[in-house]
Amino acid sequence: MPELAEVYTVKEVLKKQVLHKRIKNIKILYGKIIENDIEDFKNKLIGTEFIDIKQRAKYLVFETKDYFLISHLRMEGKYFVKDKDAKLEKHDHIIFELDDCLLIYNDTRKFGRMKLIDKDEYNDYFANIGPDANTDVKPQYLYDKIQNKRIPIKGLLLDQSYIAGLGNIYADEVLYEAKLRPNVLGCNLDLKDCENILKGAKKVLNSAIEHKGTTIRSYTSSLGVKGEYQNYLHVHTKEVCKCGNKITKEKICGRTSYYCDKCQKAK
Prior knowledge:
267 residues; alpha+beta; N-terminal domain of MutM-like DNA repair proteins; Helicase, Ruva Protein, domain 3; 2 domains; 4-stranded antiparallel β-sheet
């Protein structure tokens, strides 16, 4: 699943390719991706243009004059920008016909979702999503959120209501930076641990953004971008830590987790 760094990268590339181009038509080949009434969705967007594209947590936010189009890529969602006469592929589900190109949403598993909202609904839409993990989150905020949680910190970091944008890959890397094992319970962490987690989150995500994300499985060069952060991972999918210790691979909160039991503390 694309995480914050991958969604940010997609946003940056799309901004260079599709902004300020009129939407002439929209073809919807798999209607379940759209959470609005399909005809209303089309009527409100056709004839307008995307004036900006934002990233919030793991969401892409396409902005028009009057609306926000919220797009969540889920497991396998990808965007392609192609010539107007390009042949459609098997898993192309939503096609925005722009002035001089096609913006195509492709999704092998069909899990992705889009929703068009009024601009005044934006804050309500993201009300249950925590602050992005690479922003200036205060350690006290995270400590207050998790101090009573008898849940492994790996699971808490994957829960987007605490801090947002971390998935399986970056949660492992953040906990490596924080020197904490992913199975440590949230209630056993102190304020300094929370500070280290947030410092690690900013370091990992900003570096991943710099390297255009991590290309593992579902995140590919669909927009001509190949992530390189997989070359800088310390524990996720690794067999040996740089300290020489064997990496532990363990199922935690239903997700395969990687950590070094020498570099990362059990509390």
